Amino acid sequence: MHFEISSRFSGCGGRRLQKLPKFVCAIGLGSILTIVTSRIYAQSQAPAPAPAVDSQSTAPTAKHGKTVPLNQAGRINLIRGLSSESAVAKVPLPRGKHGIILNSMGKIDQAKAREELKQNGLAVNAGSPVEITKVVFESNRLVFEINGGGKAGTHWYQHIQVGMGTTTAPVAPVDPNQVTTNGSYITLRFSGHVPNLTVDQAKLLLADALDFARHSPTVLYSPTVPPQFKEAIKNHKVLVGMDHDAVLSAKGPPDRKVRENQPDGSEKEDWIYGLPPHVLFVTFDGDNVVSVHQY
Predict the structure, then answer these.
(1) pTM of the prediction?
(2) What are the extents of the domains in the chain?
């Protein structure tokens, strides 16, 4: 910015400058304009102030305060990371098609869980190892099938009967062992859509119901595990004295479980692997194997 000062304004004698304040006449109008010009130039070179930041602005992963919905890649990652994943039940899991329900903060609906246990009975004791056998995606929830689910294992064609006259027979007879289930469901329910969860975030939300830490291979193969158990796990064999974790690592989830109450009030549980004529019976007393029988 450039100023030109006319010679007739250099003093206070001019008619136009007689009304100026006395301090202007003392230092001179040229000096005043020089000071003003310097300040204007300094202000023009100063950096522009930063735009105000809205403390309520949302993260890039969300728009208008809403979470990003689960996408196809997220579904694939959850299936890969959680299907066939082993854990230990922290709470009793009921039979039936509902199981237990957790909210978006991972808190269990205790009233609903007690109601399901009362109506449908117990499928999995707290402290028992379980396996996530399926992950189901719905609009506002994730459903985790535990040990094959809690619904009766019958098919539609097992309800069909054919025959002649008054004599009929089922097309496919119902196996009584299929009716009794040892599985359940765990549902994560959200207020809106299912967010784009990672596997670790999903496990964190399930932490009140399932303990995933006990089945880490680094734990099972730690120095505290006896050498004979390590060798048996590598060869997929079961030995007396193993706990649930070791048996699950050696053989995987059983095909069937049978519980039996003892006269002293304790409970024994048989894990049954395979079908006749090749059947393996593993009997637990508490958390330890007390007998192994191969037929």
Answers:
(1) 0.50
(2) 7-45, 66-215, 216-295
